[in-house]
Protein backbone atom coordinates (compact mmCIF):
# COMPACT_ATOMS: atom_id res chain seq x y z
CA UNK A 1 0.00 0.00 0.00
CA UNK A 2 1.13 3.51 -0.79
CA UNK A 3 -0.03 6.71 0.90
CA UNK A 4 -0.05 10.03 -0.89
CA UNK A 5 -1.86 13.30 -0.51
CA UNK A 6 -4.65 13.98 -2.98
CA UNK A 7 -6.54 17.18 -3.71
CA UNK A 8 -10.14 16.71 -2.59
CA UNK A 9 -12.32 19.06 -4.60
CA UNK A 10 -15.57 17.58 -3.31
CA UNK A 11 -16.22 15.07 -0.58
CA UNK A 12 -19.92 14.75 -1.37
CA UNK A 13 -21.29 11.43 -0.20
CA UNK A 14 -20.72 8.74 -2.87
CA UNK A 15 -19.51 11.39 -5.35
CA UNK A 16 -16.06 12.45 -4.20
CA UNK A 17 -14.01 14.33 -6.78
CA UNK A 18 -10.27 14.35 -6.26
CA UNK A 19 -7.03 14.84 -8.13
CA UNK A 20 -4.29 12.29 -7.71
CA UNK A 21 -0.71 13.61 -7.60
CA UNK A 22 0.79 13.98 -11.06
CA UNK A 23 -2.56 14.00 -12.84
CA UNK A 24 -3.80 17.02 -14.78
CA UNK A 25 -7.47 16.35 -14.21
CA UNK A 26 -9.43 15.19 -11.18
CA UNK A 27 -11.26 11.89 -11.08
CA UNK A 28 -14.54 10.74 -9.63
CA UNK A 29 -14.21 8.20 -6.85
CA UNK A 30 -16.76 5.41 -7.03
CA UNK A 31 -17.23 3.52 -3.78
CA UNK A 32 -17.17 -0.27 -4.07
CA UNK A 33 -20.85 -0.73 -3.32
CA UNK A 34 -21.80 1.90 -5.93
CA UNK A 35 -19.52 0.28 -8.49
CA UNK A 36 -21.11 -3.09 -7.77
CA UNK A 37 -24.58 -1.58 -8.20
CA UNK A 38 -23.65 -0.04 -11.56
CA UNK A 39 -22.32 -3.38 -12.76
CA UNK A 40 -25.44 -5.25 -11.58
CA UNK A 41 -27.65 -2.78 -13.43
CA UNK A 42 -25.62 -3.23 -16.63
CA UNK A 43 -25.89 -7.02 -16.27
CA UNK A 44 -29.65 -6.71 -15.77
CA UNK A 45 -29.90 -4.76 -19.04
CA UNK A 46 -27.96 -7.50 -20.84
CA UNK A 47 -30.17 -10.21 -19.32
CA UNK A 48 -33.38 -8.45 -20.34
CA UNK A 49 -32.09 -7.93 -23.90
CA UNK A 50 -31.12 -11.63 -24.06
CA UNK A 51 -34.68 -12.48 -22.94
CA UNK A 52 -36.14 -10.12 -25.58
CA UNK A 53 -37.72 -8.06 -22.82
CA UNK A 54 -36.83 -4.73 -24.37
CA UNK A 55 -39.21 -2.67 -22.28
CA UNK A 56 -37.57 -3.83 -19.04
CA UNK A 57 -34.11 -3.48 -20.57
CA UNK A 58 -34.95 0.09 -21.54
CA UNK A 59 -36.05 0.88 -17.98
CA UNK A 60 -32.88 -0.60 -16.49
CA UNK A 61 -30.74 1.18 -19.08
CA UNK A 62 -32.50 4.45 -18.27
CA UNK A 63 -31.65 3.94 -14.59
CA UNK A 64 -28.00 3.25 -15.42
CA UNK A 65 -27.79 6.32 -17.64
CA UNK A 66 -29.35 8.49 -14.92
CA UNK A 67 -26.88 7.26 -12.29
CA UNK A 68 -23.92 7.95 -14.56
CA UNK A 69 -25.31 11.28 -15.72
CA UNK A 70 -25.83 12.44 -12.12
CA UNK A 71 -22.24 11.58 -11.34
CA UNK A 72 -20.94 13.32 -14.47
CA UNK A 73 -23.04 16.44 -13.78
CA UNK A 74 -21.61 16.63 -10.27
CA UNK A 75 -18.07 16.15 -11.61
CA UNK A 76 -18.56 18.95 -14.13
CA UNK A 77 -20.05 21.30 -11.54
CA UNK A 78 -17.12 20.70 -9.18
CA UNK A 79 -14.56 21.36 -11.90
CA UNK A 80 -16.37 24.54 -12.91
CA UNK A 81 -16.48 25.67 -9.27
CA UNK A 82 -12.70 25.26 -9.09
CA UNK A 83 -11.96 26.83 -12.49
CA UNK A 84 -10.73 23.58 -14.02
CA UNK A 85 -11.47 22.84 -17.68
CA UNK A 86 -13.15 19.56 -18.55
CA UNK A 87 -10.85 16.83 -19.87
CA UNK A 88 -13.29 16.29 -22.76
CA UNK A 89 -15.69 18.20 -24.99
CA UNK A 90 -19.26 17.58 -23.89
CA UNK A 91 -21.66 16.74 -26.74
CA UNK A 92 -24.98 18.51 -26.49
Question: Mind explaining what this structure looks like?
Answer:
By secondary structure, the chain is mostly helical. It has one domain. Helix content is 51%, strand content 10%. The protein contains two helices and three strands. Strands 1-2-3 form a three-stranded antiparallel sheet, covered by helices on one side. Helix 1 runs antiparallel to helix 2. The termini are far apart.
Topology summary:
Blueprint (H helix, E strand, L loop, with lengths): L6 E4 L6 E3 L7 E2 L3 H19 L3 H28 L11
Antiparallel strand pairs: 1-2, 2-3
What is the helix content?
40-55%
Run of helices and strands = EEEHH
**Termini, distance in Å?**
41 Å
Strand line-up of the largest beta sheet: 1-2-3
Biggest beta sheet summary: 3 strands, antiparallel
Shape call: elongated
How many structural domains are formed by the residues? 1
Radius of gyration: 16 Å
Q: Beta-strand level of the residues, as a percent range?
A: 5-15%
Number of helices: 2
Task: Please identify the structural class as seen in this structure.
Answer: mainly alpha
> Uncertain spans, ≥5 residues at pLDDT below 50?
none
Counted beta strands: 3
Mean pLDDT: 95
Short description:
This protein has 92 residues and is mainly alpha-helical.
Features:
single chain, 92 residues, mainly alpha, 3-stranded antiparallel sheet, 51% helix, 10% strand
Amino acid sequence: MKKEEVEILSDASNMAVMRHPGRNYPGSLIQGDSLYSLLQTAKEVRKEIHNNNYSEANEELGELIQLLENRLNHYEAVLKEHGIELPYVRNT
